[in-house]
Amino acid sequence: MENSESSKEPKPFQYPAWMLEWAQGAKPETMSRLMEKEKYNVKNNTPENQENRRVGAVAMDKAGGGRDINPIKSAEQAEQAPTPVITPKPISRSKAKAEVGKPEETGSKKEKVRSQPMNRRQEKLNDVTRPVLAESSTAGASREAAAAAASKPDLMANDTARSQPEEKKEQDSDDHYSVLPLPKWQLSMTGNEFQYRAILKNRPQALGALEALKDCIARCEGAATKFPGTAVLEALYDNLRDHIHKAEIRLTVTKYIIRKANMLSPTSPTGLPKIFTSPSYPSDIKADAYQLYLRWYKEDFNQDLLRGIKSEKGNKDRTTDRLDEAYRHKYPNTSKYHGNGDLVLGQWWPTQLCAVRDGAHGTPQGGIWGEKERGAFSIVLSGGHPYRDADYGDVIEYSGTEGKNSTPTENTRHLMTSARTGLPVRVIRSAQLAKGNKYRPEMGLRYDGLYRVVSYQETDKEKAVYRFRLERCAGQAAIRCQGKASRPTSFECEEFIRLKADGKWE
């Protein structure tokens, strides 16, 4: 009998029940390590395995088992185990049949009950032990955006999958800010770099400015709890605005300073993510904090308004500006998408080429940007148009470009396509608008959010000119054209005037 049992093939290794139970909440790498260790101990009968068997044997002896549970010793125990002496008691046949059948029936039921949860645990264990691949921040963001779109329409959200913007749907909210994991450039730092140690020793002025910003965040957090809706809290918000706007324009930082100040950490109680993830802060402060956060996250620490722009002398000593290819390669961007993308409401640029640099618009001269099949992505409202347009803020009457022989231009057809698809169009207002327009920015250009083309009509049949009606999408914050939230900020205006005085543009 023993020979027949020993000739059977060894059963596959079964993980202990405690390990299967614990696997449900364990980390994959930890569980995998423990399983390999258990396999090795059993296979090689290590001292640790023998000790585990000895402890188990003691427990079984107390329970009346009387056998060592070490499978290697099972054969020896079978030979050495004394034959138990059983004194039968007289019982009736009917009772004997009932008592003999009862344990087998109970045992079979227990086996069924035990096998079911064990199979489920084994399935969970198989899932845990599968290799887990690291996911890039971009892929993670795309996955989260897709999940959000499945549960709630979202056209106002960050357009991480810009190659297929038509799949995104509208969301009645301008709060589309995503907190990302720490950037790779920060994770690659060890803290032993010479530049980082020099910061700890010398404490540059920029680090002090960031610590003042963090202190202001902490005070705003405290005041929002103790003094909500008071002048004290409003004064702190004004102070915070100045800190953020100063950091955007004047603060010269490095990645070592940003890491030391812990500005990008999603868990920091006083980092930038704390501002744009908290419901207590005004929408303009959240937007400006997010704009600064994204630039630093991309490792772009150049605060120059004209970063990424190259100026060249042309004919008759005229200066021509163009995008710097090296900058575009380091910080790739696109403007061929519907929605906000990485833009924030009120984002401001000194020139239209700078708006092209940041993916807000696609051409440094034209007012309409789009594609034949996908319609218009963005438009720029500016003066000098031969036709009278109307700007009412939330409603815009906007004329397309002049065609020929009663045929509309390609740009005009882009807006017609947008009217058919209903996809939103980004609207950028220029300081070249009439001075009487209260939505006109003081200088440069400002992003004012998403609009839909709801209708259009032909105003000049011979020149194929059409006038389009655009209405602002619901759920967005107010246009930042007045008050404390106004853009451009005082820091941006001062820098614009300085650069113009230096002859950066005419």
TrEMBL record:
Skewed-composition ranges (Low complexity): 134-151
SMART domains attached to this UniProt entry: SRA
Domain YDG: 338-472
GO cellular component, one term: nucleus
InterPro entries linked: PUA-like_sf (IPR015947), SRA-YDG_sf (IPR036987), SRA_YDG (IPR003105), UHRF1/2-like (IPR045134)
Protein name, UniProt field: YDG domain-containing protein
Keywords for this protein: Nucleus
Basic and acidic residues biased stretches: 96-127, 164-177
One Gene Ontology term from the biological process aspect of the record: negative regulation of gene expression via chromosomal CpG island methylation
Source lineage: Eukaryota, Fungi, Dikarya, Ascomycota, Pezizomycotina
Keyword DNA damage included in the entry's annotation: no
GO molecular function per UniProt: ubiquitin protein ligase activity
